Amino acid sequence: MILYSARLTHVRHRALSRKFTHSMKTWLVDLDDMPRSRLLEFRAADHLGSPDRPIRENLNAWLATQGIAAPARVSMLTTPRTFGYAFNPLTVYWCYDDEGTPVCVVAEVHNTYGERHCYLLRPDERWRAGVGKEFYVSPFLEVSGHYRMRLPPPDERLSLTVVLHQDGEPAFTATLTGRRVGVARPALVLREALFLLPQRVRFLIQRHGVTLWLRGLPVVRRQPHFEV
Predict the structure, then answer these.
(1) How many CB atoms sit inside 10 A of residue 137's CB?
(2) 150-192 pLDDT, tens per residue?
(3) How far apart are the first and last CA of the chain?
(4) I need a surface site. Which of 31, 88, 184, 198 has the fewest CB within 10 A?
């Protein structure tokens, strides 16, 4: 389990331009060697599939519905549950075959309404991929358009980019950039648990939404989403 210190930036490009940035921490874990901690928990209930099966089994089952065999190795970048609370706007799974060759990337997106959706990505040699938007995330953006993502696996640096294009131009950009802090040790795990990251991230995102609403940005009606 490896910790990354990062900055999350959201930029709106249309209607009401606004930039929103805050610091956060995220963890890279091997799905076949999941950490066990009472302070930072990686629960299946917080991700795709059945809460009664391990995350790895749920991912394998979902990939099978997409015609993809179970990968030999999977790395997951996510924010763990802290003091019983979880909120993950984005979880990324990098899937590899026996030889370490990338098979695919899965981007699991959560909104503040308790819903989630998985996007299957087939990135090129520069880890770029595109996919149509199918999931309601921001109350100020319609479920339309096309995502262009660049999601290289983290090493010493972390650098992820998601751009939503609507009507032929960028409507929204999200970036997550940062650096590797180190492997998990008891003191580090305790410090990060006390940071209350999931609670903090949700509060900041919702505060940002309230600010946009107060500035008169119209709300897009949400339809219930049924997914894994």
Answers:
(1) 22
(2) 999 999 999 999 999 998 899 999 999 999 987 766 555 555 5
(3) 25
(4) 184
Where are the domains positioned within the chain? 2-214
Question: For tokens 């874990």, what's the residue?
Answer: 29
Of 37, 81, 48, 42, nearest to 201 (Cα)?
A: 81
What is the spatial distance between Cα 69 and Cα 78, in angstroms, rounded to a whole number? 23
Dist. CA 83–CA 164, nearest whole Å: 33
Q: Convert the pLDDT of each residue in 37-49 to its tens digit.
A: 777 789 999 999 9
| DSSP letters for 8-56 | EEEEE-SSS-EEEEEEEEEEEEETTS----SSEE--GGGSSS-TTS-HH
Burial string for 37-54 (b: 16+ CB within 10 Å, else e) reads beebbbebebbbbeeeee
Residue 170 CB coordination number (10 Å): 15
N residues, the chain: 228
Q: Collapsing DSSP states into helix, strand and coil, what is residue 167?
A: coil
pTM of the full structure: 0.85
Burial of 20 (0-12, 13-18, 19+ CB in 10 A): middle
